[in-house]
Amino acid sequence: MAEFVDAVEARVSATWRDYYELTKPKVVALLVFTAIVGMVLAAPPAQVPWNALIFGSIGIALASAAAAAINQMVDRQVDARMARTSGRPLPQGVIDTPHAVVFAGGIGLLGLGMLWWLVNPLTAWLTFLSLIGYAFIYTLYLKRATPQNIVIGGAAGAAPPVLGWTAVTNSIDPHALLLFLIIFVWTPPHFWALAIHRREEYAEVNIPMLPVTHGVVFTQVQILLYTVLLVAVSLLPFALQMAGMMYLVGVMALNAGFLYYAIKLRWSADASIPMKAFGYSITYLMGVFGLLLLDHYLPLVQLLWS
Ligand code: HEM
Ligand SMILES: CC(C)=CCC/C(C)=C/CC/C(C)=C/COP(=O)(O)OP(=O)(O)O
User: What are the TM regions of this chain, as residue ranges (predicted)?
Assistant: First the structure.
């Protein structure tokens, strides 16, 4: 009997883990973090309305998770043929398509409903557009159509700070668009570093990623150019007095790291650099948004200290 219970429990927990994996949890975690920074920057320190913070974060997380699950449904055949993605629950047959549809539809509607009724309809609409942008326009069309797929598709992934800001103010603020721009310009170096490493897999499944269509050297040059642009864009929050000295010093250090990897990627023959640059891109984005958050709270800390 105990063995039977163990077996049932093992199956139940494995199933939940599979659904969890279907949501690309680490990507969603970073997306939600950028949304929370958008919320925090939209209000004076410690004055973010609770409904925006709680239901906004959960709603954006659920909608992003639904988008990630739809992406994996659409991609299940190509995912099955690439080493990096073949272990996912759909290609493995652990979750079948009808269950994935119900799951994605359920969490998507729950997330959008939460935003509509408990936050505001503008945030719900913009989140819905981001979901459509990533799950359908990027995955179904752009990904298979053009090597600029991730530049255009990156707009959906860059949306969360705007969604967070709108959750608080119920309007689209130019400052929020600056946060959007940072992620938008960050996305090509983030993804193309990985695409260089995985170019043979993409070529095999006929996905026209930049290193497949234009070669590795061209992609390395593009990564370098986007990184230089990113350095410039990342300084704008300081230039426009959205953030202070603490942000400036921190972001300069993060930028030095990204430039180091982009230059090394272009001129070093070391095969481990592309994945190191990819890993660093994630640290970089967490760092930039973490700095914006800390910088915004600095006056409050100083006030409490004095
Ligand atoms: C069109 C835009 C984007 C593309 C094409 C893209 C592509 C990818 C790919 C292919 C991976 C590797 C996944 C894996 O092998 O497990 C990845 C990982 C990751 N991406 Fe992106 N990404 C994009 C935008 C974003 C955005 C906007 C964020 C967050 C703000 C983000 C955060 C992450 C994180 C945290 C990981 C690591 C996941 C892990 O370690 O499991 N990405 N991305
Ligand atoms: C509502 C809202 C804010 C939606 C957010 C959209 C979202 C989840 C963006 C993540 C971007 C991402 C992981 C792209 C990789 O897809 P891929 O298919 O190229 O990569 P894969 O081969 O690893 O699946």
Answer: 27-46, 52-74, 95-118, 124-142, 149-168, 174-195, 216-239, 245-263, 284-305
